[in-house]
Amino acid sequence: MPDDATPPQSPLGDLTLKSYLKTEAAGDPTLAALISAVAAACVDISRLVSRGALAGVLGSAGAENVQGEVQKKLDVIANDRLIAAADRSGAAAAIASEEEDDILAFPNGAARGRLLLLFDPLDGSSNIDVNVSIGTIFSILPAPAGDVTSADFLQSGRRQVAAGYALYGPQTTLVLTIKAGVATFTLDPETGEWRQTADSVSIPRETKEFAINMSNRRHWAEPVRAYIDECLAGREGPRGKDFNMRWIASMVADVHRILTRGGVFLYPWDKREPDRAGKLRLMYEANPLGLVVERAGGAATDARGAILDIEPTALHQRVSVVLGSAEEVELVTAAHG
Length: 337
Description:
Layout lengths: L16 H8 L4 H23 L8 E5 L5 E3 H17 L2 E6 L6 E2 L9 E9 L10 E9 L19 E7 L3 E6 L5 E6 L4 E6 L10 E3 L10 H12 L10 E2 L5 H11 L2 E4 L12 E2 H14 L3 E3 L16 E2 L1 E4 L1 H10 L2
Parallel strand pairs: 3-5, 11-12, 11-13
Antiparallel strand pairs: 1-2, 3-4, 5-6, 6-7, 7-8, 8-9, 9-10, 13-17, 14-16, 15-17
Helix pairs in contact: 2-3
């Protein structure tokens, strides 16, 4: 490109996250303030991710989280940045994080906004050191009057007032749903501003792509094995079409691909842990991503019913997840009876 050439502009022009919130969160400055605070924290996290070893943030933090998983340095840093951002906003009465044992209720709760923030500070963190896309997932719920307890967070996904994620990849992308529909923003690295690059995101109902960890096939329930076998049979099989498999091992990245071009993501029940409903976290992953997918015209189930209808019983509850293009999600769910 010649030095004096004008770079291509977003088809949505000069729309920014700030202007989007003026419309979508009109009349609710507290919600706008909290989303803005989360988005600002994601800008900071993105910069650290992009610097990697230069910032000294790669490798293990030498501790385990409440899930029994070894924390990466960036897990801890991202968690701290999001907590600090929520606190400064004054919009959240309390937060819950995948990395924390219990909720954190902020002091002087009566003077704060009546919102609850939940987040997975760095989804796919096992990919950090190998430079594969990772992300931050967040969910916002209404808070009751008075002091907040952990029980106040146990609301179904239908109660979310907003949800979304930031994806740290070749570009840093913010995906957000508030009232209805799904919008996408791209971080301008020169200005640090979120510019809207898509609105009314829609997932195709039909697809020829699935995402699942095939190495676990022997551990799945029969309906999932049968479904995947039919996909692998291709055009000569009962589905009558060839499928491609995609698996990034970073849920937020797999979901973003589905949001962009369709597909189905499965993280099913596993017989190695028969008493656990699944591996993914309902409150920090399945609910917020389920809301985004549903609002984009897709479907999200635990292989038996809609994820957003599950009434939580624990802060760190786990579930099976099947989400994406509605036709495929419906097939898997119907196969489970």
